[in-house]
Each structure stands twice: as structure tokens, then as C-alpha cells.
């Protein structure tokens, strides 16, 4: 089954021959190898690049075992370069090479060589790229299928597709599975036997029970404000655990480095500054989150918020949680400080959007509640409420736009309609 991922192909094309190592990252089973060895390789061939000028090596294949040695890999690639035309080298699972950073940096000295690599999360994370390549690595983050990508291969209506996507997520292999039992078992086993095992092995976690308990707590609380100290109190009161907030923060960093979760930090809109705690945590894929909890907590409002966050990240936005401090008069006439929350501040370049996620707006009271934080923002950037029902885009007298979740997810320019 061919899945169109043109957005990532465009990102790779924009980085061609930029003098840096292009590093394809993302949670395991997200389709990094397919992107590099099928989509990008075929694109090169279609553009007329000669096949013998594309050096593609899947290092996890036993056929290439001898190339896992640093000098052997370097010599092999260099031996393939026999003229001054452009060459492309595509390396899958580069972590099999012990001194891969030295090899990659050596490749940079070959002027007519353009290098692209993928790596496993157990030994190859964003922090590695930033520190090891020292500004010479260019990361391309790959996410699970967006809903728009998912619908290109889903055989059903948009309504059914959204329910399926919300429940089982967008890992590429899911779309080829026929039954709910297949999908749930695949995701549950993947989470436990691949992701959790990778993180525990990579970081040599000794108290695996506490770590797995934390994963469960985070999965249960997507979209809720939290911080390590608050989580420490939960462990102490509910589980009688002595785990510290420092250890919890470390575990959260491990999960983030493995691309399983992402953090949205609070931003004081009026004060124009970040507030370090609390923060919100979202899972990279709703299917993985649901699988971790045995598909027992399918709360549509929280899952919709998680999907909106992920879609914004796929579109290249930086995403924060908005905080607005206001002063209001209570029933006794006293002025009190009150904090209002904007679910998301999405910004990219000079563009900024304030976004509220509301699964339903059953009455004017709920509508006023969602719009209240937006009305307290004194700037001209767009303010949007995304709801679970499918409605045509509309704007009220205050300029606040309301649109349905499907329209938001399916139309790449939905925020600018």
C-alpha cells in the first residue's frame, strides 16, 4: 500500500546539497526507512539521477554486516564515487556503526556527496544529533500519518475515518490491518516490547515498575497541566512511592527523546514570558496512548486536543499553552486575580494563532467560556475555536473563528480560511 507523504519529500528536497548530514528521525515504525528508501529514492530516479550514483545501504540487513565497521563503510562509499557528478548516499539504521559521527563528518569532506541517514530511537535521538554533529546535522522529524494522509488510504467516510484515527492513530502499518483485534494487539505489543524496552535498555533504568507507572499516569492525563513535583505527590499519596521529582523529570526527558511524547510549555501572553511549570504533555500518536491504557480511556475531548497539537507540530508550528492574567470583580465587589488558559499558541515565523479545543459547544454559556480567554488577548493575531462537530467556518462579531475538527485536519490552510 503506497501512502503519499509529499510534505516530507518536500522537506528533504529543500535540504538537498546543503552541505549537512540530513538525519531522518521519529518514533520507531513511523516510516522513516520507507520515506528514505522508497519515496526519496524513487524521486531521485524519476528526476534522472543515475542508479549507480545513489548508494543505498540498509545497515540492519545481514548482507551489509561487514559495512557496520566505520572504516569499511567509509571505504565502500568512497569506492563508489568514480566521477565528479553528484552522488547520494542513503544509510538506514546508522546506529549499527559504532563511530557513525566520525564517518558522517568524513563524508562532508567529499564535495559531490549528499548524505541522508535514519537511526533507531534506542541509540539515536534528537539530543545526539544536536550534540554530536555540532551544527552539521540537519534533522527532519517524521510524525505518524496526519489525518489527511490517513484518509488517502482509508476506505470509508470521513466520520468513520476520524473515529478510527482517534482510536488507533496513524502509524503506517495500522492502515493495512483489517480488525480491531489486530490493531489493538499490534499497538499494545509495540509499546511494551519496542518502545518501553528501548528506553529502559538505552538509559539503564533499574526501577522499571515506577517508570511504567509514570507512563500510565501521563497517558491518563494528556492535555492536563502538570509538573514533576505534582507527579511526585501523586506517587507518594497514591502509590506510597519515594520517587523524586528529579527522577520523574529524567524519565519524562527519556520519553521525549524517544519521540513518544512532547511538551507544551506555558507562555504568559500579557507578560510575554515563559512560565516553566506547569506544562502539558501530549503523545505523538493517539493510538499508542490508547494502547498503553488498554483502550479503556477513550475521552474524545482530550484525544481531540492531542490530535490538534500533533497536527500543528506536523505543520511546523512551535506550540505553547497560553496563560492570561486578568483582574475580575467578585460577587462582593472585591478585585481578584484570575488565570485564564488558551489551549494553544501556534507560531511559525511571523504567523501566530490562538486556538481553543472544544469537543462540543452545547450552549451559549460553554461558548462564552471558551471565547473568554481569547477576548482578553489584545493583539490582532487570529483567534480560533475548533470543535468536534462538522460545521462551516464562521466568525462572530468579535472576529473569533469557529471550525470543525475535520475541516481543520484535512485542509492544510485551514487556519487561514
TrEMBL record:
TM spans (from-to): none
Pfam families hit by this protein: AAA_14, DUF4143
Origin superkingdom: Bacteria
Domain AAA intervals: 20-151
InterPro entries assigned: AAA_14, DUF4143, P-loop_NTPase
Domain DUF4143: 197-355
Protein name per Swiss-Prot or TrEMBL: ATPase AAA
Organism of provenance: Youngiibacter fragilis 232.1
Amino acid at each position: 500500500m503506497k501512502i503519499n507523504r509529499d510534505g516530507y519529500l518536500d522537506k528533504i528536497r529543500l535540504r538537498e546539497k546543503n552541505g549537512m548530514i540530513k538525519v531522518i528521525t521519529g518514533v520507531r515504525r513511523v516510516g522513516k526507512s520507507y520515506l528514505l528508501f522508497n519515496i526519496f529514492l524513487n524521486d531521485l530516479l524519476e528526476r534522472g539521477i543515475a542508479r549507480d550514483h545513489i548508494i543505498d545501504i540498509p545497515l540492519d540487513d545481514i548482507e551489509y554486516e561487514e559495512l557496520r565497521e566505520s572504516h569499511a563503510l567509509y571505504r565502500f562509499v568512497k569506492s563508489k564515487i568514480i566521477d565528479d557528478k553528484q552522488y547520494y548516499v542513503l544509510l538506514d539504521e546508522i546506529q549499527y556503526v559504532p563511530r557513525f559521527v566520525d564517518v558522517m563528518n568524513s563524508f562532508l569532506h567529499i564535495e559531490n556527496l549528499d548524505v541522508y541517514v535514519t537511526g533507531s530511537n534506542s541509540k539515536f535521538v534528537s539530543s545526539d544529533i544536536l550534540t554530536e554533529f555540532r551544527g552539521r546535522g540537519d534533522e527532519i522529524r517524521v510524525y505518524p500519518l496526519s489525518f489527511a494522509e490517513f484518509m488517502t488510504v482509508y476506505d470509508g467516510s470521513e466520520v468513520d475515518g476520524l473515529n478510527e484515527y482517534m482510536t488507533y492513530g496513524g502509524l503506517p502499518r495500522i492502515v493495512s490491518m483489517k480488525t480491531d483485534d489486530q490493531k489493538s494487539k499490534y499497538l499494545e505489543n509495540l509499546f511494551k516490547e519496542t518502545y518501553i524496552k528501548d528506553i529502559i535498555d538505552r538509559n539503564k533504568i533499574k526501577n522499571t515498575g515506577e517508570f511504567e507507572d509514570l507512563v500510565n499516569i501521563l497517558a491518563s492525563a494528556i492535555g492536563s497541566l502538570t509538573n514533576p513535583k505534582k507527579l511526585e505527590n501523586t506517587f507518594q499519596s497514591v502509590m506510597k512511592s519515594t520517587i523524586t521529582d528529579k527522577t520523574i523529570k529524567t524519565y519524562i526527558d527519556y520519553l521525549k527523546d524517544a519521540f513518544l511524547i512532547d511538551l507544551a510549555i506555558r507562555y504568559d501572553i500579557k507578560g510575554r514570558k515563559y512560565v516553566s511549570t506547569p506544562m502539558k504533555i501530549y503523545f505523538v500518536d493517539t493510538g499508542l496512548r490508547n494502547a498503553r491504557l488498554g483502550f479503556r480511556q477513550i475521552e474524545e475531548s482530550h484525544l481531540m486536543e492531542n490530535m490538534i497539537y500533533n497536527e500543528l507540530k506536523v505543520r511546523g508550528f512551535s506550540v505553547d499553552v497560553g496563560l492570561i492574567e486578568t483582574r475580575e470583580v467578585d460577587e462582593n465587589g472585591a478585585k481578584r486575580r484570575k488565570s485564564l488558559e488558551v489551549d494553544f499558541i501556534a507560531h511559525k515565523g511571523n504567523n501566530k494563532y490562538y486556538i481553543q479545543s472544544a469537543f462540543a459547544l452545547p450552549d451559549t454559556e460553554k461558548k462564552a467560556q471558551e471565547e473568554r480567554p481569547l477576548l482578553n488577548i489584545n493583539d490582532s493575531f487570529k483567534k480560533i475555536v475548533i470543535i468536534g462537530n462538522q460545521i462551516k467556518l464562521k466568525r462572530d462579531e468579535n472576529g473569533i473563528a469557529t471550525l470543525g475538527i475535520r475541516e481543520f485536519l484535512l485542509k492544510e490552510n485551514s487556519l487561514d480560511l
